[in-house]
Each structure stands twice: as structure tokens, then as C-alpha cells.
Amino acid sequence: MPWDDTQLSIGELVLKDNVASAKNVKIMSTGASHLQSRFINKDQYLYLSDITDFWNVWKSSDEDKPWFKSDNEPGYPFGWCFGYPGYDIAKDGIVIGAKSKDGLNNLLLVDIDNPQTVIKDLGQLVRSKGYSFGTYTNVLCHGDCVYALGIDDPANPLTLLRISLTDDSVYIYNDDSTGKDLMPTYLMQNQWSSQLQIKI
Fold first, then answer.
1. What is the CB-side half-sphere exposure of residue 19 using CA atoms within 13 A?
2. Across the strands, what pairs with 96?
3. What is the pLDDT of residues 47-96, one digit of tens each?
4. What is the mean pLDDT of residues 4-23?
5. CA distances from 57 to 116, 163, 180 (A)
6. Are the CB atoms for 119 and 110 separated by under 8 Å?
7. How far apart are CA 74 and CA 70, in angstroms?
8. Could you please report the per-residue DSSP string of 116-131?
9. CA nearest 91: which of 74, 69, 114, 109?
10. How far is CA 115 from CA 48, 57, 112, 174, 199, in A?
């Protein structure tokens, strides 16, 4: 299973006659679980790994310690499933779902060069609007907005929210009837992309 051991590799994707293949593949890391890799520029990338027996965000150029170390594993417990990203890259930083020392599950915008510097506490912003979620998952940054699923309780429907990084507005998309339909890859489905007016 992917939480036991996966191999992180980088290569060139080639499309020929509608068939995709990879060439010049280089193994970057093995011996642990590696999930949710994201390039932050053409030379560096982030990924989740439990190499220290705890899920944290790692950076390719800084292999001796986690790039972002939190008190809680980023994102939903099923982060190994496709479509449950616990973090994403925004225009001004990295948005990460992480538990703070006071026990609150925060959605944090952190600095790319200094990840322990919190640019904006999006979880606190959401709470100031009267909402409180136990977990944030399916984090997706698009333009000046952050989209995420907020989970109050595993038995309750999920709540899709949009947070503006420019004016700090918080918009809740769904009511009790739509949450189950959003799980797990809501923004990858055409009907949701169309409804949210997002071009992917």
C-alpha cells in the first residue's frame, strides 16, 4: 500500500500518437511513503512523506529535515488517496492544512522561502466568519482564491468554501444537500468546475 513504501521519480512526459510515456526517469527518493508532489519552480518541488514516522511537507533541496513541520499531519487522514490534497501552491505562498499548538485545525498561508513564517491564518479568518471545521482537505489554489473542503464531523456533509486572498472574504458554496457529491475530486469534475467558473 502507498503508506508503506513508494518511489518518487522525475522524468519527461512524452505524448506520441495519443500515447503517454516517460523518458529520462530519475529516482529521487525511496524507502518511505511519498505523496502529493508539487513543483514550486522548475528545479524544486514539495511532497508529503512519513519518513520520520509522521506526515510532513518536505522540499527536494532540503532532504535532512521537513520543509514544513506541523503538530498534525497536513490534510485529511486519507491523503494517500488521489484527490485529497492537504496543501497547494498559491501566488504568494503555500497553503497548508495543519493543526496548531492550541489544537485548532488551521489553513495557513506560509512563506515559500521561510515556511515557519505565517503570512495569513486562513483558519482564523474562517472562524471569524462564524464557521469552524475540524479538518481542511482538498486544498486548491486558483488565482487569488483558495478552495477547500471543511469537515466538521466525518458523519456530516462536507462544506466547500472559497477564501479570497485579496479581500479576506469567505464564501460557502454548499448546503446540507451537496456535500457528499463533492467528495473527493470536486474541482476535477466538469460540473463543479463549471459551477465555480474555474478553468482548469
1. 3
2. 87, 108
3. 888 887 777 888 887 777 888 877 666 655 556 666 678 889 998 888 98
4. 88
5. 12, 22, 28
6. yes
7. 8
8. TSEEEEHHHHHHHTT-
9. 109
10. 14, 10, 6, 31, 28
